[in-house]
Structures are given as C-alpha cells and as structure tokens.
Fold:
Amino acid sequence: MHNDPPPNARPRHPLEREPAPPPSPGAAGEKQPRRATLHIPTVRPTVTYVIIAVNVAIFILRTLSRQIDFDLLIWGANQPIAVLQDGEAYRLFTSMFLHASIYAPGEGFAFVNALHLIFNMFILYAEGSRTESMFGHARFAVIYLLGGLAGSVLSASFNLPPETYSLGASGAVFAVLGARLVFLYKHRKLFGANGRAEIGRVTYLLGINLVFGLVSTFGSALGRIDNWAHLGGALGGAALAWAIAPFFVLRTHPDQPDHILAEDVNPLRRHYRDIVLFAVALMAILIVGRLLTGG
Structure:
C-alpha cells in the first residue's frame, strides 16, 4: 500500500527527522554521537482530496435553488425516527456529506452557515492529509467512513429529541483526529519531541471542539452541535486505529548505513475480521437505539 520513493522525490513529512549536521571538531579521540536520517513510507493524500471535492460539490449543488437544497436536506440528513423506525439507514452515510444550508428560513441567505463546511474541510485538509500520507489510502478510507458512521450511529441512537435532524462531516473528521492521536501515541518514542508536540496539538484540537460542543447544548435548539456524532467519531476512529493503523519498526538502509527505514509490520490484510466486528458493533448499537426509541 505504501510507496517509498527516493528521499529527494517527495516533500519531507513533518514527523520525519532532519539529517544530522556534520560533527563539530572535538578533543582528540572524543567520539561524536552518530545520528541517522529517518525515512517513513508515505503516499499522496488522494482520498482526502477526493472527499473534500465531493463535499464542496454537494454544497455547491445545493446552492443552485432553495428547492434542491430542501430536498437533499430532507432526504439525506441523519434523523433518528427515519433511521431507527423507518429503516432509512442510508442516512447514516449521506448525512456525512451534507452541511448547513446558506438559505435562511423564510427568505434571504445565511452565508455564515458556510463556515460549517469550511471549518470541517479545513480540519480534514490539515489533519487528514497528514494521516492518510502515513496510513495509506485504504486504511484512511476505512477510518474516515467507518469512524464517521460510528458518529452517525451514536447520533441516531442517543440524540434527543428524536425529531432532530443532524448533518455534517464532523463525525468523520473527529474519527481522523482520534485515529491520528492513537497513531502518535503508539509512536511517541519513535517521533520524539516532534511527536509529543503533535500529540499535544491534536489533543487540544479534540478537547476544545468537544467543550465547545457541550457549551452549545445550553444555547438555542437551532444550530446546536451534535456531540454524539463528535464523540462517536472520535471513539470509532481511535478504536479502528488501535487495530489497523500502521506500526513502524526501524531497520538500517541496505545501501546507506546512515539512513534508517521505517517498516510497517501491521498490514491492513491482517485486520479484515476486526473491521467486520466493528461494523457488527455499530449494528448492535443501532438495535439498542431502536429499542430506546420504542421502535
């Protein structure tokens, strides 16, 4: 899945170590510490770019007319009664590609609602591209889609009141953040100070958004943040990454002793059963949610 082109053929990933500077002169016989350049196999984050393009395209389509916007919203938003009682499970997926409308209730526009899309796509671009570059296309797609579905499932199962409509990519974006945090934690020794700084930054990003979501519950019902989707996405992405994320071990480059190669010893093919079990767990949560809503 991962390609490892020559070091000069691609940009250096933020977590890769810089080449060591030449040793400074020291006292006679003094040994200088040896440092090596670390090379991590990466891919171009194509899936991230495609997901962003799809979200933007759907948003633009909805701006063409108020009727198109309304029809797509009513058809595709995550709605507990429709999902749990009417069997419209497709909404768990379609809601991940819908965002707040720029049409205001009644007449006119609410252009500020475009911030919903802009914020989600900015986070996805910044964090998704970094995550996919190391996870590879298939693993990243699994985490984004299944982690996003975990957010949708918790939203449909536990949101109150059950007449609520929920939409947005934030559950899937939180899944990416949760997965990235697990990956960084497992490689905290490998990435050193850079990795610890990344852990702090991602933890802060997750925390501030969860707190902001909780605060929003005390506001008006209009425009509230779906905390269940955020929590479900973060937990789902973290759980998936704990099982399927790449795990790198180091080996010396066969031709360049001062270069270290990071080799993934946790290929995705070993975890197809884990992915199926995760999907089964989501279905079990839906059953519980159906029982809670009296379905």
About this structure: Confidence is low (pLDDT under 50) at residues 1-10. The two ends are 43 Å apart (CA to CA).
